[in-house]
Amino acid sequence: MRSYNNTIKKQGPLSEGKQVLGILLNGDQILNCSSSPTSHDQGNCGRPVGRWAVTQEGFQVNVIGYKGAKPKKQLTSDPNVSISYLPTVPEFNKYLPRLLAYFFKVLWQSLTLLWALTLKRRSDFVFVQTPPAIPVFAVVWFYSALVRAKFVIDWHNYAYSIMALTLGKTSVLVKMSYWFECYFGRKAHGNICVTKAMSLDLMTRWAIVSKVLYDRAPEEFHRTTIDERHLLFTRLSQRYPILGGALHATAFTKIEEGRPVLRSDRPGLVVSSTSWTEDEDFNILLSALVNYDKCDREDLPKLICIITGRGPLKEYYIGIIQATKWRKVSIITPWLEEDDYPLLLGSADLGVSLHTSSSGLDLPMKVVDMFGCGLAVLAHDFNCVNELVRNGQNGLIFKDAPQLSGQLIDWFANFPDGPRRYDFSKAIAAFGGLRWHQNWVQRCMPIFKPNQDFKN
């Protein structure tokens, strides 16, 4: 979920004061939006919210969520956005068996979310991003029926498939989530999803008609200038010395005649973002980097690999990284300020995506961000990845660590100034020509027109 700054002229139906409530969900988050409207989001309010395009079209947004990272200034300074917080869910699992704890967690979330919704002014639309699904679908459906609002679901993945990663496909909770998503998904007035593969699956699996909306990067994701790179790495090197250099220099830049320039002896910079969960096999990247480190070719540069993200397996893999004896590869795992993340992507030489999707039907947002920064990507193969990364056209696909290490070696051969085997710049630039706000207005704003037929 993101926030956007673009200004687009209001279209007729949207400037008439129709009220909209959107609940945007991602992970443990819920968010809401509205028009003379009102909107709500349940989840960590610090996470950027991606449907703020509606605020540019005359809508007000009320965010309801759990406290987390500090909200973006774009949200807190926007007069059309208000933020309120849900009470933290008690740790029922500390005192109760798993099933009973889950029951009380769902009950708590249901009551607090319903209460938060009813405190807001009535809205004409309720917009839900999933996962999660339980209990949000039921609460929003009930609220929508109560106030005669339209219930719209934005499918990013299946909640049951994520639960199955840890509980197993035969788990009672997984089966219950499957039924829950099917039952309430059919009750939605409209559905949008992130891939053609998911749209087809929704139809064949649950007879749900949906509209495909591919993600696009917002404007803040762009290729950085040398000045921006120098300032970024100068700042980051204070916490991560490997990014630094001699006086007035970094590992990648130096000052010549009063201006920053790229160093000819700079290392290659690889970036990846991971959730550090079973959904993304970090062993593949780690093994590929070990293979690169062992390669004796003289035309290969040193590499710095920056891996962002937080998750349960992070400390485990950091231990492995620190125990490995590296010659040519350095790995750091920083937690970046939000404004630094697009600058890092725009400064990198290559991106790596380990995303495989629990359902095999969603696409990695991190690749969209990388393309927005003009960055080529090596992406893990899975069911519908070719809807975003087309092998040999705008990136490369790998299936395992040996293939990934071979791609890294091919990519960085003769770096930085020698002949390149691949050039995806034109295809990536074409992809980045369409940004999130424009894409959202073109594809989704018609949903908010009066008397919209959602099933078509």
What does this structure look like?
Strands 3-2-1-6-7-8-9 form a seven-stranded mixed β-sheet. Strands 14-13-12-15-16-17 form a six-stranded parallel β-sheet, with helices on both faces. Helix 2 packs parallel to helix 3 and helix 8 packs across helix 12 (401-412). 33% of the residues lie in helices and 17% in strands. It is built from 14 helices and 17 strands. It is α/β, with parallel strands linked by helices and 456 residues long. It has two domains: 12-216 and 436-448, Rossmann fold; 226-432, Glycogen Phosphorylase B (Rossmann fold, 3-Layer(aba) Sandwich), CATH 3.40.50.2000. Residues 269-412 form the Glycosyl transferase family domain. One of its GO terms (cellular component) is endoplasmic reticulum membrane. GO terms for molecular function: chitobiosyldiphosphodolichol beta-mannosyltransferase activity. Pfam families: Glycos_transf_1 (PF00534).
Number of helices: 14
Strand content: 15-25%
Radius of gyration: 23 Å
Domains (count):
2
Task: Please state the structural category.
Answer: alpha/beta
Task: Please state the overall shape, judged from the principal axes of the Cα atoms.
Answer: globular
Stretches where pLDDT falls below 50 for ≥5 residues? Answer: 1-51
Most strands sheet: 7 strands, mixed
Biggest β-sheet: strands ordered side by side in the sheet: 3-2-1-6-7-8-9
**Total beta strand runs:** 17
Could you name the CATH topology of the largest domain?
Rossmann fold
Q: Kindly state the mean pLDDT as a whole number? A: 83
Euclidean distance between termini CA atoms: 25 Å
CATH architecture of the largest domain: 3-Layer(aba) Sandwich
For the record, the CATH class of the largest domain is Alpha Beta
Helicity range of the residues?
Answer: 25-40%
